[in-house]
Design brief:
CATH class: Mainly Beta
CATH topology: Methylamine Dehydrogenase, Chain H
Order of helices and strands: EEEEEEEHEEEEEEEE
Helix content: under 10%
CATH superfamily: YVTN repeat-like/Quinoprotein amine dehydrogenase
Structural class: mainly beta
Shape: globular
Radius of gyration: 16 Å
Number of strands: 15
Number of domains: 1
Strand content: 35-45%
Oligomer: single chain
Strand order of the largest sheet: 1-2-3-4
Length: 172
């Protein structure tokens, strides 16, 4: 028996257990396609699959977010991450890919303003987000991108939903 930390539905259903085990399920046939351990993870906290099913991102209690190639996770029992992103120092409690799979948002609801955006093709963290002179984000509880990535929204512990315009994208 394991404790479930996070779940999501995608083309293949994916689960992340408390111990860092990732299970990929085919919901239609009700069987597990593969199981692997998130590298270096002792306590899994969040999981996300890119909209094009190219990447799986797994967040951990240490703040490390591992990004894997989805195909490797289906075929291999010990896939190696494409990148281990170590820009959070508190648990990575929320992960979200934008619809074009160019950006991965990662946040922690343990520390104020702990949110980072990662450019996926290069796996570099945007240094200009968030940039504030005073606290504004507080604890990020959930976040998502609009259908064409023109907007990014964050819900925080103060009951606010913050909306940011991403001007790189011309449409909403």
């Amino acid at each position: 028996m394991f404790k479930l930390s996070s779940t999501l539905f995608s083309i293949t259903c994916t689960y992340l257990s408390d111990e860092g085990q990732v299970f990929i399920w085919d919901v239609k046939s009700r069987r597990c396609l593969n199981k692997f351990t998130d590298e270096g993870c002792l306590h899994g906290t969040s999981i996300a699959v890119s909209k094009n099913s190219q990447y799986i991102a797994c967040g951990s209690n240490s703040g490390v977010v591992n990004v894997y190639a989805h195909d490797d996770c289906i075929r291999e029992t010990s896939p190696k991450p494409l990148k281990a992103i170590m820009n959070l120092v508190t648990p990575a409690t929320s992960l979200a890919f934008n619809p074009t799979t160019e950006i991965l948002a990662m946040a922690s609801n343990i520390s104020d303003d702990a949110l980072k955006l990662v450019h996926i093709p290069s796996f570099t963290v945007f240094s200009n987000f968030p940039v504030f002179r005073r606290k504004l984000l507080y604890l990020a509880y959930c976040m998502d991108f609009s259908p064409r990535s023109g907007y990014f929204s964050i819900a925080n512990n103060k009951g606010k939903a913050l909306l940011y315009r991403l001007k790189h994208y011309s449409d909403f």
